Amino acid sequence: MLTDTVQSYEQYLQLTRDRYASGVASMGDVAQARTQLETTRAALTDLGVQIAQLRHAIAVLAGKVPAGFSIPLHPLPANPPEIPVALPSALLERRPDIAAIERQVAAANEQIGIAQAALYPTISLSAGAGSESATFLKILTASSYFWSAGGELAQTLFDRGRRRAQISLTRAAYDAIASNYRQTVLTAFQQVEDELAALRILEEEAAVQERAVAASQQSLQISTAQYQGGVQSYLQVITSQTFALQNQVSAADIQTRRMVASVLLIQALGGGWDISQLPVT
Fold first, then answer.
1. Cβ distance 258 to 203 under 8 Å?
2. CB 3.0 to 4.6 Å from 25: which of 19, 255, 264, 276, for a disulfide?
3. Confidence label for 126 from pLDDT (cuts 50, 70 and 90)
C-alpha cells in the first residue's frame, strides 16, 4: 500500500514540477509535493524495521537462524477463512490446558477411591486357619488394654479418624481441581466467543471502511482535477492525499486485525474448526 502511495506521490511531484515549469504552479506547490513524498518514503522505510522483526520472530518459531531466514512478501487476502455457522464444543477438548486439567480431575477422583478403600483392613480371609486370619481373630478378641494402649496392627487397621480426615483432604483437593477445570473451560469458551465477536464486528467495520476509502479516493480525484484546472490550490490536493492515505491505513489495519482474530480463534479452539480432525469415539 505505501509502495503504491509513494509511486503516486512521485507522479504528483512531477505534475507540480511540470506546472511550475509552465508558470502555472508556484515553487510552494513543488515544495509541498516533495514534502508529502519524502514523508511517505520515511514511513515506508520505517515499516521495514517491523517487517524484519516479525520475520526474525517467525524464524525463531520455526527453529531457524534469523539471519538466514527470509519470507517473500505477499499481500493479505481480502477476507479471512470462512468459519462454519456452528462449532461443536468438542473441539475445545483438544486444547492442551483443558486436556491437562481434565486428567488432573480424573486422577484426583481416583485418589478419593483409594482413600476410601484405606478405611477397611486389607486382610486375606479364607476357610483355612491361616496366619493372617489368626492374627485378625486375636485383634478382635483382645483385651480392652490392647485396644487402648497397644497393638500397632490394630492402630494401622482401624485408625478410621485419621483416614476419614485423609478422605476429606482428598475430596477438598478434588473440589479445588474441579473448580480450576470449570474455570479453564469457561475461559476457553470466553476466548472463542471473543474472537467470533471480533470477526463479526470487524467484518462490518471493514465494509464501512471500504466505502470510506472509495470516498476519499474520489475526493482526491476531484481535488486533482480542480488543481489541474486552476480552481484549487495544491494544499487541497495535499489534504485529500492525507485523508486517502489515512483511510487506506485504517482499512489495512482492520484487515490485519481480522486475520489475527482468525488465528486467535484457531488457537482458542485447540487447532481450528475442522470437525474431521476430532477423534472418532
1. yes
2. 19
3. very low
The CB-side HSE value for 114 (13 A sphere, CA atoms) comes to 9
Average pLDDT of every residue of the chain: 79
Cβ distance 123 to 136 under 8 Å? Answer: yes
Q: Scanning the structure block, which residue is given the C-alpha cell 538466514?
A: 68
pLDDT in tens, 146-170: 444 444 444 444 555 676 777 778 8
Q: What CA–CA distance (Å, rounded) separates 205 from 199?
A: 10
Contact call for residues 241 and 32 (beta carbons, < 8 A): no
